[in-house]
Amino acid sequence: MRDLLSSITRLPLSQQLALAASGCCLVATLTLVVLAAQSNRYTQQNLQAEFGQSMAEHLADRLGNELATGDMLGVAGELNRITQHSQISAGRALDVEGLELSAAGIRRPDGLYFTSSIVIAGDTAGTAEVTIDTEVQRSAQQQFLLSMSGLALLLSIGIYFATRAMAQRLAKNLQLVSAELAAVTGESEVSPNEVTALQERVAALPLELLQPRVIDGDSEDHYADTAILFIYLRSLPGYLETVDERRLQRYVATVHRMIYGAAGFYSGELQVVRQFGLVIWFKGQHKTGSPALRGASCAWLIQQAAPELETSLRLSVGLGLSLGGSELGRGDERDIYPGLYTQAAVDELEVVARQTQDGIHIADFVSQDLDLVTRMAVEPAGDDGFRLGDLADGQRDLLERQLQILLKALVPEDSASTGD
């Protein structure tokens, strides 16, 4: 059965629809034929029962008259007379003990038997029996069933061809679409079923390229105060034309490792925002303190590590450091509003970082941060805002240990001793 269904599903669409329609038609019509045959059989049985019983009663009356006079020839004559009826195959007369007195005709085992009591002067003198021949009715009923079944089969065949002709028009349209897709996908051999072939060729298309990206919604991570550390690579522009490419790549890679390593202590996110400018974003909660404190600590590590890199690289590592902040974060591809909003703060920090020759500039936005002012000194710097000052003892110890770890990873001991 499963193999048959599998074979049918591989047929063309027109044949599948035609088989389904003709099959449903055949089942429906055969059901009606069976119901009609059952109804006809029930009607025939009722008519035969009424006829057989009435003939048995009529025979009993006639036999009663003959038995009352003791005329057995008359009894035999009555039995022969009743068997001349086309539907009656046999008749019998029985005494009160069930013994046969006289019989006529052929008593068929598959016939219907009807009996009636023979009454003489109010007393039962025997029984009259009539056998109804059902062979004719049974043959007629079978003929009716076969003819109606044949008609149902012919009707189903007609439905098959009609449905197939209409379905071929639909299949032709699907074949045209499938052929157009075949020119794109290059698929030559597909299933003979038009729907399956279309599915196979659609599956071969790069549908992921046609799907637009869906923006899920605003990200709450970008709607919180964020510290922004802008780093201007002051020395890099002068080396673009004076240093060979291999050495320049080594220089940029080493400075990158330094900045990336310092940011890693405080979960900072590094991003290139200008040609010679980097930004490190600090947001959210952290065990080391607020975003402003983490940004200032990262800036201090970078400032202290830069001179050590100059010795290793034999090139200047001049940096401009400016720490500020924004009410929003950096944003991302799903929500660009925070990124657009923070551009003004980044522009201001870039201007200050370009002008700062030494030290770490602190913007007004983060100068009053409680964690920052508790662990680090924030000193006024004239009209330029504030500048990072001395560190508290606990904070200095922490940063000194982090600085040693960072330098150990950046400047191997043999390079530091040989200056190479």
Structural class: alpha+beta
Question: What does the overall shape look like?
Answer: rod-shaped
What is the strand tally? 11
Low-confidence stretches: 414-420
Rounded to the nearest angstrom, the distance between the terminal CA atoms is: 82 Å
Major sheet characteristics: 7 strands, mixed
The whole-angstrom Rg is 54 Å
What share of residues are in beta strands?
15-25%
Average pLDDT figure: 85
How helical, in percent, are the residues?
A: 55-70%
Tell me the series of helices and strands, N- to C-terminal: HHHEEEEHHEHHEEHEHEHHEEHH
What strand order characterises the main sheet? 6-7-5-8-9-11-10
Note the total helix count: 13
Description:
By secondary structure, the protein is of the alpha+beta class. Helices cover about 55% and strands about 15% of the residues. It has helices at about 1-10, 15-70, 70-85, 135-185, 195-205, 235-240, 245-265, 290-315, 335-355, 365, 370-375, 395-410, 415-420, and strands at about 90-95, 100-105, 110-120, 125-130, 225-235, 270, 275-285, 320-325, 360, 375-380, 385-390. The strands form 2 sheets. A 7-stranded mixed beta sheet has the order 6-7-5-8-9-11-10, sandwiched between helices. Strands 2-1-4-3 form a 4-stranded antiparallel beta sheet, covered by helices on one side. The radius of gyration is 54 Å and the shape is rod-shaped. The relative contact order is 0.08. Mean pLDDT is about 85; it is low at about 415-420.
